[in-house]
Design a protein that fits this description.
three-stranded antiparallel sheet; disordered N terminus; 17 helices; about 55% helix; single chain; alpha+beta
Length: about 425
């Protein structure tokens, strides 16, 4: 026999109302007092059911789960799934006992039924959210999770659940069908698109970022338009968080990474090497042919000793075979100090212990400019750590700048005030100039 049909509840409420009226209370007030007592009784039953469920049933379930060998069910405890699900007990009591307790008050019974239905929906939404979060934690502990983050999808699942729950609650409160609610959304689709523009863009961008493996947690990215240059620490539906090298945090909307350009340095990290691409400018006036004295000096440099011998023999044989008039420096083949300098740099880098020899190693001359002839070093350091990379790069160019004069070359440097001051001291009052 259903509790809502028990006649003693209605008889008891009728008796309470009659007693209150007999004691001098107005009929309306008596009904209100009786309704309040009924609500208090219902709340007491709900509180007792919730207390028993949480303190006894849930604790027993969690205790049994903690004894299992698998750790996957522990994530449900961590996200309080069973604690949230325990609210189902008072929700069911409200929905089943409410109509029977308020047979004398049809309006209140209707409201109580709606409250019970809404309560059950809220309980299911919170419980489902705990399951989604538990699944996310399980996924994050898998090996491939680092390369394929799904936080954006998890947030999208939460939004979908909340959205459907909200529409269902609206249908209950306004006593309309859920289909009618969905149909009415079509009329305000443009407004919804405007309101949820960032969400829709975030969903689309998250799918593209993940599907194309464009960026993942732990990648070093650079995006000057957002002052971002550091490691990706979090990828969500609305933001990609980057911890810059100065420990500041830059936040980038995911759709910005899809629609605009950025640099991902993960290729460098995976290769285990970091590129040096830097040049020095040589003063053009210091470039000249090598004299026998210069070649003798260069021959004493161990790294290019064999190169000087081989190249000298090659040049001599070529010039003899063509019977060049070598009294004119324009005729014949000749070595230049800048060419020998480039060969020295190349050999030096080939013997450097911190240079990756299996990748591109290049010393080249770039287009001359008004600041001299750029000699560019293009190599890869076999360590990606920033501090080590910078030290190696600095050591290499310290050495280059120091040995430039040994090849009778000069590094170009724009003149400063001290240079003009020095030039002024070379001339005395009364000196004559030739034009």
């Amino acid at each position: 026999m259903e509790l809502s049909k028990l006649s003693f509840i209605e008889d008891l409420q009728t008796k309470i109302v009659n007693e209150l009226v007999f004691s001098g209370m107005e009929n309306t007030a008596a009904h209100i007092v009786c309704a309040l007592f009924s609500i208090a009784g219902l709340l007491l039953i709900c509180w007792t059911a919730k207390l028993i469920t949480q303190k006894v049933i849930v604790r027993v379930i969690e205790h049994l789960i903690q004894k299992t060998k698998t750790e996957y069910d522990d994530y449900l405890i961590h996200h309080r799934f069973f604690q949230k699900l325990s609210h189902l007990a008072p929700a069911v009591i409200i929905l089943t006992l409410g109509p029977g307790l308020f047979e004398l008050f049809p309006t209140i019974a209707e409201y109580i039924t709606e409250i019970g239905q809404v309560y059950i929906i809220v309980v299911f939404v919170r419980s489902l959210g705990a399951i989604i979060n538990a699944f996310h934690d399980m996924y994050n502990h898998m090996g491939y999770a680092q390369n394929r983050p799904i936080k954006g999808y998890v947030q999208m699942a939460h939004i979908t659940v909340y959205f459907i729950a909200a529409l269902t609650i609206v249908a209950i409160v306004f006593n309309v069908s859920l289909l009618a609610v969905f149909t009415s959304l079509g009329a305000v689709a443009a407004v919804l698109l405007l309101i949820f523009k960032d969400t829709i863009l975030g969903i689309t961008a998250s799918i593209q970022l993940s599907a194309n493996d464009m960026v993942k947690i732990g990648d070093w990215i650079s995006m000057p338009s957002h002052n971002a240059d550091g490691v990706v620490t979090e990828i969500t539906l609305y933001a990609v968080k980057v911890q810059n090298w100065d420990k500041t945090i830059s936040t980038i909307p995911p759709y910005e990474l899809v629609s605009k350009s950025f640099t991902n340095w993960k290729g460098m990290s995976e290769a285990g090497a970091r590129r040096i691409k830097r040049s020095i400018s040589i003063d053009m006036k210091s470039v000249k042919f090598c004299t026998p004295e210069m070649l003798g000096k260069f021959r004493r440099i161990k790294l290019i000793e064999n190169y000087i011998d081989e190249k000298s023999q090659e040049v001599e044989a070529f010039n003899k075979s063509h019977n060049w008039d070598l009294t004119n420096p324009v005729n014949g083949l000749r070595l230049t100090n800048i060419g020998v300098f480039r060969k020295y740099l190349e050999t030096y880098l080939l013997h450097h212990p911190m240079i990756q020899q299996e990748m591109t190693l290049l010393v080249r001359q770039l287009q001359p400019t008004d600041t001299g002839i750029p000699i560019e070093v293009y190599v890869f350091v076999n360590n990606t750590a920033w501090a080590i990379y910078e030290n190696v790069q600095s050591d290499i160019f310290d050495h280059i700048l120091a040995i430039v004069p040994e090849f009778e070359l000069r590094v170009f440097q724009s003149p400063s005030g001290d240079d003009f001051k020095y030039i002024g001291t070379q001339f005395q009052k009364g000196d004559k100039f030739q034009h």
